[in-house]
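pasting for ref
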Amino acid sequence: MERPPVLLSDEQMQRFVTDGYLTLQPSVPDGLHDIIDEKFSWIVEHEPNPGNNILPRLPELNYVLQSPEVRGAMISLLGEDYLIHPHKYWHYRKPDEDCPNDPDEVWKRVQAGSHQDSYSPSSQPKCHYLRYARFMYYSHDVEELHGPTHVIPGSQYHGGLDDEDRAREVPVTGRAGTVFLSHFEIGHSAGVNLSNRVRHMIKFIFMRTEEPAAPSWEGGSTGWRTPDDITAPHDLETAWRHQWDWLRGAYSSGHGHKETTVTVAELIGRLNTGNQADRTRAIYDLADGGSGSIVPLTKILEASGLRESLEDEPFFHKKSTVTMDDAAYALIAIGADAVTPLLSLLDAPHEWTRMNAILAL
């Protein structure tokens, strides 16, 4: 008989909104993780990486995917009708015999590998909303010497990663069976394996199929509350509250919850430049102000389209995952009031303007 899902609490959901990740331990048959780990180790020596074919090759993983804890977390994050994306990958890391046993050198390697994933198989723009979630599973005890995945808390709202972000990487460790769930856009990196065994980690992508109309977790009836002891370093309360209300199916633009003396012009000046946290705050402060921000935001999209049209090769032609203009994310957050002005941009002469308008719509 199928066991009921274990839904996340308000506090767990709020931590996911701020930090962008959580860990859990699935309840599965005794000895399952050992069986999976032994099969992983055998495949390393005898077969190529199964990639997207990992479930038929290692069906025991279904016990983890169908555990009450994983199903409950995915329902909570992505809604009842979530799907597993076709893209799957087994990340194994053999002991790194070439790496000097120097903590500073190891840390440099971790930071150098920091990235935000691109969508498979197509190029897609980054999205602040929780439409995709990344699932990672360790089949054995993973400590820092095994080269665990590292994560940059709170970076899921960043258009890119800078040195400040990379300096904040933290290792995700845990005993056999640990499941690490994260917002798809969060920055992360592989560690360096200094142990004497192969480190195994399997990655799946889960995706939302419907817009949230109501909370899908255990709670969600109250307004936003910032959790205690979050790991995200910057106060992005306006952005967090927006995401919380969107997940509850309760968002409308122009809430005006936050008193601010900063003008629309000053907030506009913070877009697309400088510190990522300042940019994110500006995006959602502009959205919080409602329709008064729409005209200057559409003018930014017109100007950025012209700027890109003058380049021999626009930057978005070189990227597998495109970070759109900050103004587009602000117009998305404003919502329905921005629809008519955005429709007018579909006839703009410049490709980049039209792309941002299409995303926002």
